[in-house]
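One thing: could you explain this record?
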Amino acid sequence: MRLYNTLTRTVDEFSPREPGQVGMYVCGPTVQDVPHLGHARAVIVPDVLRRYLEWTGLEVLHVRNVTDIEDKIIARAEAEGRMAAAVADHYGRVYDEQIARLGVLPPHIVPRATGHVLEMIELIERLIEVGSAYPAGGDVYFAVRSFPGYGKLSGRSVDDLRAGARVDPDERKRDPLDFALWKAAKPGEPSWRSPWGPGRPGWHIECSAMAVKYLGDGFDIHAGGLDLQFPHHENEIAQLEAASGRQFARWWVHNGLLNIGAEKMSKSVGNIITLAEAIDGHGADVLRLYYLQAHYRSPVEFSEERLVEAGTAYARWLAFLRAVGDIEPSAAGSEPDDARRRFVAAMDDDLSTPQALAVLFDLVSAGNAHLAAGRRAEAAALRGAFTELAAVLGFGLERSERPTSVAPLVELLLELREQARARRDFAAADAIRERLAAAGVVVEDTSEGARWHVGG
């Protein structure tokens, strides 16, 4: 598999540190609010990458952290008149519930920042020891210029950053670019004991400490949104590599952002669509299809029309699966194997999900052609390939169940529709179908009579 590495700015042949095993760290949420639609992409991309690697036979150890202590959480707690821990716990549970609705595989390890403060203190002590950090009045800062490789991930030079830096009123810093590893306690804020007095860790040190605790130095893949590339990921590298002298992560995989107009979807901008609203309105698989139609490194411009189009395309998938039903597949033909080869070629080419989806659409088109020609066993063979490959991309292919409470009513209306068609009253027949569609009941006319289902 060839995978783009932000660190090298090239598409390189991926090979894990340990044969057959992959360690992957994904930057998780700062739990101070409900997740929004933009957060979905940051979990769907590593979810698809993990699923594909596992499908090819690799064993993946997936770690995704939770930032449960940070400035935004403290501000939210003050605004709500609650303790920071209560805010983090509440929104952490909301995040888990909504991400689970997306069908994302749960990480193997979910470390919380507050459970790893000792590891962070040890890392900060090591940085002070090697001269890359310094205490200042209860705070501890990382000395950016002490790490020669600073800027290698983002491609920014220290001198350019220094020239563009605003004047920092904190005279305790030796350089305006230096950033906090440890923050001295303020009245009413959560704090932990440390060699520099009570306080709490800075955001950047959290991920450095937790990633290496569970994956070790030089682990395989660090993933996250492009908005985290600088300064968060840049600082993660600087902290760990300055302390250890060894490589932090080998591959950096950044997904593009969801934009509304010219701005990314963000709570601070106030242009969010909550993840719950999006799933309720369109369905988890439709959101997944919407995102995977674009390459993971490309930005996605929010479009309600594109979401509706994705829903229509997804409905065609479900219609094909319903039409094939439980027919036994034919063992003959090369179409399923050809589809798998094309799928692998697409995914091996820097996780090209648009091309992988094209394989799924081709399978549905070919399957429908077999059905139209009466070759139902051949269509069933393509159904098997389709469901296998769709699962690799994380699609659940849920089939809406018929609510028993309305089933008799729908069946009666369909009988009336058939009677109207028999007497050639097509206007009445169409009106019944349209009214059912408005209520979310989809009617499909087949050679065996009308079939119906709810949604999709």
